[in-house]
Amino acid sequence: MKQEKNTPEHTLNKKMLERLIIIHNAIKAGMFPDVPKLQKLYCEQTGYSKVGEATIYRDIDLLRTYFHAPLEFDREKGGYHYFDEKWDFALNSISTEDVFYLSAAKTLLSSFEGSPIYNSISDVINFIIDTQGVEKSSLLKRIAIAPVPKVNIDDKVWKKLLEAVRNNYIVEFDYYGCWNTVTSRRKVAPYQFLFDDGSCFLFGYSFERKAERIFSLGKIKNLEVSSEHFNLPENYDFSSRCGGGKFGAFLTEKSVDFVIDLYNDAREIVKERILAENQKVTDFEEEEKTRVEFSSTQILRVMEWVLSQGSHAIPVSPDWFVNNWKLTVEAMMKRTKGIFD
């Protein structure tokens, strides 16, 4: 039966894990280090000027009690060793495949490079990968993501919102939207952070609108975290509001049933992707088209997707959506009148 870990007195953090790995590697290498030697090794390898004796003793005790290290002090050799030489520290035995996935996670977040969340996550991933040796960490170079626009998140806004989300505090801030460009003061119960297409949003309940809304972090100004708590709904997840659709950070109150006909290259594109949980794809070979049917509350994003397919995507229903698409296409034709004459 696997032995349960006791909760450490102090929460594990990067510096603590850093010390544990240095201590473990010195013991595993057969150096039989004592506490003064471990203090010296830690300072040499990290560049810190000092580390307390009591801190090293706590780390050694943590290896024994939390990680169940077979650790004892050899009085003849004057240092610590493992009486079971096969034992290894868990962080030192992460598989090459897991390192690959950690590297991939960092790369996939590259559109947020320079933002507070990227810096924090990147530091943790780098720390874990760098403990694995060059042959593993070099895998990072074998994963790439096409260049995309970088998101711009104010560090102060991010930290305050993180505090509010963590503690369920209501926040107030100045905001202007895409359609309403007049800045207004908003009072919001923050539910979740949303990351979508290189942008970061806040999803929560707007007291002014008496409804759930999405706010772009880049447009939030003069943010204040109140001491007023709110009760987080049991089912607060944004994805549950999308009516099954998978079109990113956008929603309306009602779910809509869409039917769209696809031609040429778009026929294969829709077969490679899941646009919604209830997606149904039907081929009509005689008409050389593929019909996709699905539900979503993300009406604007569905329209953007249809338009992005150009003449290869023709909406069939609902009628009001088809009419809006026709008006958009007509407006595009008017704008281009004279350009191609």
Précis, in short:
This protein has 341 residues and is α+β, with helices and mostly antiparallel strands. 35% of the residues lie in helices and 23% in strands. It has helices spanning 14-28, 35-46, 53-65, 96-108, 116-130, 134-137, 155-167, 265-272, 299-308, 319-336; strands at 71-74, 79-82, 169-175, 184-196, 199-206, 211-216, 221-229, 256-263, 280-284, 289-296, 313-317.
Question: Could you walk me through the main structural features you see in this protein, from its secondary elements to its overall organization?
Answer:
By secondary structure, the protein is α+β, with helices and mostly antiparallel strands. It is 35% helix and 23% strand. It has 10 helices and 11 strands. Strands 6-5-4-3-7 form a 5-stranded antiparallel beta sheet, covered by helices on one side. A 4-stranded antiparallel beta sheet has the order 9-10-8-11. It has a two-stranded antiparallel ribbon with strand order 1-2. α1 crosses α2, α1 (14-28) crosses α3 (53-65) and α4 (96-108) runs antiparallel to α5 (116-130).
Compile the SSE list and pairings:
Blueprint (H helix, E strand, L loop, with lengths): L13 H15 L6 H12 L6 H13 L5 E4 L4 E4 L13 H13 L7 H15 L3 H4 L17 H13 L1 E7 L8 E13 L2 E8 L4 E6 L4 E9 L26 E8 L1 H8 L7 E5 L4 E8 L2 H10 L4 E5 L1 H18 L5
Antiparallel strand pairs: 1-2, 3-4, 3-7, 4-5, 5-6, 8-10, 8-11, 9-10
Helix pairs in contact: 1-2, 1-3, 4-5
User: Can you count the beta strands?
Assistant: 11
* Strand content bin: 15-25%
Estimate percent helicity: 25-40%
Question: Strand order, biggest sheet?
Answer: 6-5-4-3-7
Oligomer: single chain
Structural class: alpha+beta
How do the helices and strands follow one another from N- to C-terminus?
Answer: HHHEEHHHHEEEEEEHEEHEH
Apparent shape: elongated
Distance between the termini: 79 Å
Q: How big is the Rg?
A: 28 Å
Uncertain stretches of 5 or more adjacent residues = 1-5
How many helices does DSSP assign? 10
Mean pLDDT: 83
Biggest beta-sheet profile: 5 strands, antiparallel
